[in-house]
TrEMBL record:
Entry protein name: ROK family protein
Similarity comment: Belongs to the ROK (NagC/XylR) family.
Biological classification of the source: Bacteria, Pseudomonadati, Pseudomonadota, Alphaproteobacteria, Hyphomonadales
Annotated signal sequence range: none
Length: 300
């Protein structure tokens, strides 16, 4: 009998704006979930712990928890600081150990990885990158990050990539200085949700034909080209709140093809199959956390 039969696990998607928690089966079926505003770290961990305690009392006790969390993050299991958030612009979170704090509150084994590694793992198991041997998940929200899987593992271990801080060529009409507190006009500084809102207003209120989307698509297309030319992944999954904008994925694909300028022969349908939205939608990170817990439990 498989060690996965009947397992229930807890998943946490730790974002800079929202934390989400779930109870999931080993097959990736979410049985219940809740979301909380990302507040003070102690208060946020209290809310997560309370969710899992209530689930246990309701007859759905998780055997372990996985956290797919914003970073930068110490994801080395051999490190004394495994699970600690490093130098983040998110006030109050630098140095906070999400793994230890949640484990202490729940008494359960807790695994941790980056939000994008978690989301990519879930997409490769149950979503848009299922069956791919190499894939990238890029999240575009409060920040920007990328999880990269190739040659049987996630790239960058025991650390992780910081793809959101690569440099991009400025759009000719963009004079914004950038929102990144470390690098100004890096990819994250020009394309994250706060950067978009700073010059165009709330993204959810921008019309589909707003000229700002052309600028956003320009930078994300450059990011996809960098990934293609360096890694040649089978799938590039673009997730995060900003990708909910109607038509943005199509603008990115169009600019991607135009910027390549025929260098790589890629028919239109091939670009659409390469650059995709998450098959798991808003649950990619949440199920990524659940998959982390599952992997940890079945490997014991």
């Amino acid at each position: 009998m498989s060690k996965q039969n009947g397992l229930l696990v807890g998943g946490v998607d730790g974002g800079g704006t929202t934390f989400k928690c779930c109870i999931s089966t080993a097959e990736g079926e979410i049985l219940r979930s809740e979301r909380f505003v990302t507040a003070r770290p102690e208060d946020t961990m209290d809310a997560c712990s309370d969710f899992f305690v209530r689930c246990a009392k309701a007859g759905q006790p998780p055997e372990g928890i996985g956290i797919a969390c914003f970073g930068p993050l110490d994801i080395d299991p051999q490190s004394a600081n495994y699970g600690s958030i490093l130098n983040t612009p998110k006030a109050g979170w630098s140095g906070f150990n999400v793994r230890n704090e949640l484990a202490d509150r729940t008494g359960l084994p807790v695994s941790v990885d980056t939000d994008v590694n978690g989301a990519l793992g879930a997409e490769m198991a149950w979503g848009a990158a299922r069956g791919a041997k190499s894939a990238v998940y890029v999240t575009v929200g409060t920040g920007i990050g990328a999880g990269i899987f190739a040659n049987g593992d996630f790239l960058g271990r025991p650390s992780h990539p910081e793809f959101g801080h690569i440099r991009v060529t400025r759009h000719r009409d963009d004079i914004y200085g950038g929102s990144c507190s470390f690098h100004g006009d890096c990819l994250e500084g020009l394309t994250s949700a706060p950067a978009v809102e700073a010059r165009f207003g709330p993204p959810e209120l921008m019309a589909p034909d707003h000229p700002g989307w052309e600028i956003v698509a320009c930078y994300l297309a450059q990011a996809c080209i960098s990934l293609t030319l360096t890694l040649r992944p089978e799938k590039i999954v673009l997730g995060g709140g900003l990708l909910l904008a109607p038509g943005l994925i199509d603008h990115i694909r169009e600019q991607y093809a135009a910027m390549l300028n025929g260098y790589l022969y890629m028919p239109t349908d091939a670009v659409a199959q390469l650059i995709v939205l998450p098959g798991l939608g808003d649950n990619a990170g949440l199920l990524g956390g659940a998959k982390l817990a599952l992997q940890s439990l079945v490997s014991q």
